[in-house]
């Protein structure tokens, strides 16, 4: 006879207290992230419009995030991890991946319009779905999910074709962004699953602390002339404060959502946020989409709703083999073998 068990990462037991388990908690994490992400794009657009210093805006967002989180932790309002060298090492690369993805995003948008960028982003779940299987122990997407991802790409491409021109120059930056984005989604999911933290706020603290240090040098290098000439008004301060508050919430829900769902599912949710933002822009800004264009965007939302997350792979373990290992003293009671059997 054989036993079947989930193939999980080495840190599956980490931070069980803040890892969403039931459907209600998962839905809370997904809706929280989707709401913050969709609004964040609009708020950032307004903030950078009144304060044309994007590096400084991002620096204020990440700095206010870790400072406010640590302050609340010191007051006993939330549980926040202390500074530990192993965690600092792990989350340093999370911050590097995060900032590299943002930089590549900005460079990509210099050479292609937003609608074209969304089409490239809509295709990323196809690659990440396979990488989830290769590196993170997930099954390959089933037929329904594969068709859902394909429909998402087709819908986004159809909207671009009907309501916007296809504008792409500098394919090198598009390719760099694509690879960086896929690495960002996979590596951060790996760290979330494998690095034990006391609460989700610990992830927010570590990531934003490192990001603020890295962004400080970038801001001092790129934007000192803008900041010295800036005339601060109530409008600029209000926009900056709103973006900082939303940025902290966004960071919290992003990590909570990454812990709750697979890397591919997280990417699909992110794509839905981008499409939702386009719909918001159509309503708010002076941009009139055709009925067909709006129909394609709504079709993208329906396609994303049909996506089903791939479960963790299972392994077959011979019960006779397990008993033999136990009798020989190779493993302690309740402890898994040091090297898992081959996946079947």
From TrEMBL:
Sequence segments annotated as region (Disordered): 323-344
Entry keyword set: Membrane, Transmembrane, Transmembrane helix
Lipid bilayer topology: Multi-pass membrane protein
Keyword field contains NADP: no
Name of the protein described by the UniProt record: Sugar phosphate transporter domain-containing protein
Limits of the Sugar phosphate transporter domain: 35-295
Top-level taxon in the UniProt lineage: Eukaryota
Lineage: Eukaryota, Haptista, Haptophyta, Prymnesiophyceae, Phaeocystales
Keyword Membrane attributed: yes
GO cellular component: membrane
Entry's localization field: Membrane
Source species: Phaeocystis antarctica
Transmembrane segments: 25-43, 55-78, 90-106, 118-135, 147-168, 204-222, 237-256, 263-285, 291-310
């Amino acid at each position: 006879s054989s036993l079947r068990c989930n193939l999980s990462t080495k840190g599956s037991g980490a931070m069980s207290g803040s890892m969403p388990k039931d459907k209600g908690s998962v839905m809370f994490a997904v809706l929280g992230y989707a709401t913050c992400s969709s609004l964040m794009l609009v708020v950032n657009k307004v903030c950078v419009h009144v304060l044309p210093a994007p590096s400084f805006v991002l620096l204020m967002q990440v700095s206010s995030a870790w400072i406010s989180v640590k302050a609340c932790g010191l007051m006993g309002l939330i549980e926040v991890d202390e500074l530990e060298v192993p965690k600092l090492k792990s989350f340093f690369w999370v911050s590097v991946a995060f900032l590299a993805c943002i930089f590549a995003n900005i460079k990509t948008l210099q050479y292609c319009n937003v609608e074209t960028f969304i089409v490239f982003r809509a295709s990323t779940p196809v690659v990440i779905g396979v990488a989830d299987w290769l590196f993170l122990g997930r099954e390959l997407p089933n037929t329904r999910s594969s068709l859902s991802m394909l429909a998402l790409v087709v819908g986004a491409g159809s909207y671009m074709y009907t309501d916007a021109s296809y504008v792409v120059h500098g394919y090198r930056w598009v390719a760099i962004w694509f690879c960086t984005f896929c690495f960002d989604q996979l590596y951060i999911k790996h760290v979330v699953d494998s690095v034990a933290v006391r609460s989700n706020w610990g992830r927010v603290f570590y990531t934003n602390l490192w990001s603020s240090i890295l962004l400080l040098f970038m801001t001092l290098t790129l934007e000192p002339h803008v900041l010295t000439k800036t005339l601060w008004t109530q409008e600029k301060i209000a926009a900056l404060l709103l973006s900082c508050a939303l940025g902290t919430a966004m960071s919290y829900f992003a990590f909570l959502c990454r812990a709750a769902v697979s890397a591919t599912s997280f990417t699909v949710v992110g794509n839905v946020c981008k499409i939702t933002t386009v719909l918001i822009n159509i309503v708010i800004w002076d941009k009139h989409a055709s009925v067909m264009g709006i129909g394609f965007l709504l079709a993208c939302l329906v396609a994303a709703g049909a996506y089903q997350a791939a479960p963790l792979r299972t392994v077959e373990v011979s019960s006779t083999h397990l008993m033999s290992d136990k009798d020989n003293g190779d493993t302690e009671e309740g402890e898994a073998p040091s090297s898992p059997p081959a996946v079947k």
